[in-house]
Amino acid sequence: MKTRPAPLPIRIAALYQFARFDDPASIKPGLSACMETAGVRGTLLLAREGINGTIAGSDESIDAVLAHVRTLPGCSNIEVKESRSNTMPFHRTKVRLKKEIVTMGQPDLDPLSGVGTYVDPQDWNALIADPDVIVIDTRNDYEVQIGTFEGAIDPETKSFGEFPDWFRAKRAEIEDTGRSPKIAMFCTGGIRCEKSTAFARSEGVKEVYHLKGGILNYLEHVPEQESLWRGECFVFDERVSVGHGLKLGDHSLCRACRRPLSREDMAHEHFVEGVSCHRCHGERSEEQRARYSERHRQATLAGARGQDHIGRRDDIETDD
Predict the structure, then answer these.
(1) Burial 180-209 (b: 16+ CB within 10 A, else e)
(2) Where is the composition biased (Basic and acidic residues) (predicted)?
(3) Angle at alpha carbon of residue 133, lines to 212 and 187, rounded to 5°
């Protein structure tokens, strides 16, 4: 009889909830204290519209923090996306106050009152295979480059704040052909689609759908042999990317620009570990590269001593 392998020691919890926090600043001290006491690392963002972030720790510590989060207004039924790792993906514990938990630049938009129709991962393939459905990847360009769904449109946005203008232009283009938009959107964990589908509906589009739980939910529940996903999914922590079954992907991270790098990217002449890659080499000055080089040297020395380098940018600021 085969024994089931022991689970990997680090539990990673990605969470978000649109809720109405009248005073996010009053929530921060208690949440910060809970995370510190539990020994949980990662970043949680708080805004008047809710909470968003990813944390990691032992099973008991994650349970403690999630129990606290569920006491917050509107968060009793918060959905949490979990995975496991051999190593801690974060180096710090942070709770940050923001204007939005995912920055779209549409302050009057209320996802609680107008999101699109949720589609379970098991039903997603049939929806996006419909030739009348326009499938849109709402993530940023560097995320789309390493993986997306077959036939999806890449808006080529540098940030989520560019999405509204892109969407308005794209909708006008579609309607010029005489078509009535029927749109399916997706993102990493679902949060950007809460806003993008609400935005599309506020613009008058009636048929709007989005992938419930995002790409991560799809990769976890849809078998690879049935999957329409191609490539890997960028995640906002030290794992960098994951594949089907949420297995660790093959991408690394440029410490200068925070973009994912394939093995081919790291063979490029402009790749210098900790300093630059072919995408950001021309975007940084010699002074900046010298600073990154020293930061990498210090991080390497700290790692050799078994210590965290306090100057290292560890977790990736997420708008998903």
Answers:
(1) ebbbbbbbbbbbbbbbbbbbbbeeebebbb
(2) 288-297, 306-320
(3) 35
DSSP 274: T
**Looking at residues 283-312, what average pLDDT do you find?**
76
User: In angstroms, rounded to a whole number, what is the distance separating the alpha carbons of residues 168 and 276?
Assistant: 35
User: Average per-residue pLDDT in the chain?
Assistant: 89
- 130 by DSSP, 3-state: which? coil
Give the DSSP H or E segment for 16.
Answer: strand 10-18
**Dihedral angle over CA of 48, 51, 52, 54, nearest 10:** 150
Sign for the pseudo-dihedral over CA of 21, 25, 31, 35: positive
Nearest Cα residue to 252 out of 268, 270, 234, 275? 234
Measured in residues, the chain has a length of 320
Residue 319 has pLDDT above 50, yes or no: no
Q: Any idea which residue has 């970043």 for tokens?
A: 43
Contact between 51 and 75 (Cβ < 8 Å): yes
Segment 209-222 shows an average pLDDT of 95
Helices (H) and strands (E) in the chain, counts: 9, 15
Is 54 in a helix, a strand, or coil?
strand
d(CA 207, CA 219): 25
Q: Coil, helix or strand for 300? A: helix
Active-site residues, by number, are 187
CA–CA gap between residue 309 and residue 199 (Å, rounded): 41
pTM of the entire predicted model? 0.84
